[in-house]
Each structure stands twice: as structure tokens, then as C-alpha cells.
Design goal:
CATH superfamily: Nucleoside phosphorylase domain
Distance between the termini: 30 Å
Helix content: 25-40%
CATH class: Alpha Beta
Structural class: alpha/beta
Number of helices: 7
Number of strands: 9
Bound molecules: hypoxanthine
Shape: globular
Order of helices and strands: HEHEEEHEEHEHEHEH
Strand content: 15-25%
Largest sheet: 5 strands, mixed, barrel
Strand order of the largest sheet: 5-8-7-6-9
Number of domains: 1
């Protein structure tokens, strides 16, 4: 694994992806931040050695490098999901590559179903903590001590300093930013009413199919991370309407402008 990471890092450096400050992973339907980047280099995943190849058509599958809010950023437009068939080691591979390219912080966005009835779809949630229900772990059998201990401490998985700043930025800009617990499930099917009820009862506010593997890998490597979810559908087990994936994507696109404000302002303050 470490050899592959080094090979990919070398290849990206040779193509001008030099010393980024911050890595950004853009979630489903959340590519607009990429339009704000003053792009210097871009590569499709299929042209990057050892990168998995994006399979879901609404993920563009491009790695971008450039300037955003006076920071050098590297952004993944389109991420890899467990439900696409990748191993979790493959899913976190780009996070390891970004860390070895030199990023000092990682920002993640995603789309998630909302189970907290005080909140509504279209709003955002800053992830304060998570529950991992994925049936595997990216650190399992990972024999590369350079990445850190596989017994990674997860007592504070999301960076308190960046999270505090995001809350302030939201307030300043009149953006409603809820805070709570994200639960990761494998998907790709959406949940039954009984499953939403269960997920709520075990302490989650929102549910999604991504992010947690990348956050675990970031914590293992000592990389501070913050993640913001767009609430794309209301998941009230007592009143559940059929969930249409197109609607999920549309809601994500509509809420995206707030996410762009949060991330681009945060970059100025870190
Ligand atoms: N469940 C799981 N993942 C999701 C959902 C959901 O309701 N909405 C967006 N991603």
C-alpha cells in the first residue's frame, strides 16, 4: 500500500500537484465548489496511477488542483463508495495520497438522509460524531505502520477548531448549520422504516453511505478533518414517503450554495 501511495504521489507531483494545503472531498451532487477553484491542474481518475475508477455516472471522477480562498487545494470531484464494489482500502487510498502530497487538513461533504424531525431537508449538518455500521474497516489488515496505529483513537474524530469556525461562519452568513451524529451504512438501497427507527434509536441524526472510512483513515494519519452533510431527504419512520434518488440529487444541488460559502470562508480562516 505505501509503495502504491508513493508511486501515485510521485506521479501527481510530476504533473504539478505540488504541496497542497487542504484536501477537499466533494459528495454526491455537490460538485459546485469545484467551479470556484482557480484550477491549475486536473486529472481524471482513470489517468492517475493506482486510483480506483469512478463507476457511478453522476460522479465526475476528477482530481483538481488550484487556488481557492488563498489556499492551495486538492479536490476530489466525485468519491468512491463501498456500494460501488470497492474495498475500503481502495476508498481511503486517495486520502492517503493527499496526506502524502502534503495536505494539513481535510474537508468532506456528503448527502445524507435526515432522521431528526427538528430539522428539514435542504438544511446542512456539521458532523460532530459518527457511528460506523459499514461491514468492514479500512484499517483491517493494514500492514503499513507509516500511516499510524490501526488502533486509531476516535475520541474526537472531527476537528474541534475547524468545526467551531464553521459554526461561526454559518451564523455570520445566516446559514442554518445543525450539529449531530452521522451513521454510515453500506447501501446502496435506502432504509426501511424499521431501519430508520433503529438508526435514530441508536443515536444517529442523519444517515449516509460515505465519509466514515475517509474520516477513520484521516484520524489514523493525524490529519484534522471536518465534514458537512446536506440533508437531502426526510426520513421519518412514522411518515415515510418513497425516496427518489433524483430528488436527493436535486436537493443536494439546491443546498450546495451554502456549503460553498462555509468551505470557502473556512479556507480563509485556517
Ligand atoms: N439513506 C442513506 N443514505 C442516504 C440517504 C438516506 O436516506 N439520503 C442520502 N443518502
Amino acid at each position: 500500500m505505501i509503495e502504491k501511495v508513493n508511486e501515485t504521489v510521485g506521479s501527481l507531483k510530476a504533473r504539478g500537484f505540488e504541496s497542497p494545503d487542504v484536501g477537499i472531498i466533494l459528495g454526491t451532487g455537490l460538485g459546485a465548489l469545484a467551479d470556484k477553484i482557480d484550477v491549475e491542474q486536473e486529472l481524471e481518475y482513470k489517468d492517475i496511477p493506482n486510483f480506483p475508477i469512478a463507476t457511478v455516472e453522476f460522479h465526475k471522477g476528477k482530481l483538481l488542483y488550484g487556488n481557492l480562498s488563498d489556499k492551495k487545494v486538492i479536490a476530489m470531484q466525485g468519491r468512491f463508495h463501498y456500494y460501488e464494489g470497492y474495498s475500503l482500502a481502495e476508498i481511503v487510498f486517495p486520502v492517503r495520497v493527499m496526506k502524502y502530497l502534503g495536505i494539513g487538513k481535510l474537508l468532506i461533504s456528503n448527502a445524507a438522509g435526515n432522521m431528526n424531525m427538528d430539522w428539514k431537508k435542504g438544511e446542512l449538518m456539521l458532523i460532530d460524531d459518527h457511528i460506523n455500521l459499514l461491514p468492514d474497516n479500512a484499517l483491517r489488515g493494514n500492514g503499513a505502520p507509516q500511516f499510524g496505529s490501526i488502533f486509531t483513537d476516535m475520541s474526537c474524530p472531527y476537528d474541534p477548531d475547524m468545526n467551531k469556525k464553521l459554526a461561526v461562519i454559518a451564523k455570520e452568513n445566516g446559514i442554518r448549520l445543525n450539529q449531530g451524529v452521522f451513521v454510515a451504512v453500506s447501501g446502496p438501497n435506502l432504509e426501511t422504516r424499521a431501519e430508520y427507527r433503529y438508526l435514530r434509536n441508536i443515536g444517529a441524526d442523519i444517515v449516509g453511505m460515505s465519509t466514515v472510512p475517509e474520516v477513520i483513515a484521516a484520524n489514523q494519519m493525524g490529519l484534522p478533518v471536518s465534514a458537512v452533510s446536506v440533508l437531502t431527504d426526510d426520513c421519518d419512520p412514522d411518515n415515510l414517503a418513497p425516496i427518489d434518488i433524483e430528488e436527493v440529487l436535486n436537493t443536494a444541488r439546491e443546498a450546495e450554495k451554502d456549503l460553498v460559502v462555509l468551505f470557502s470562508e473556512l479556507l480563509k480562516r485556517i
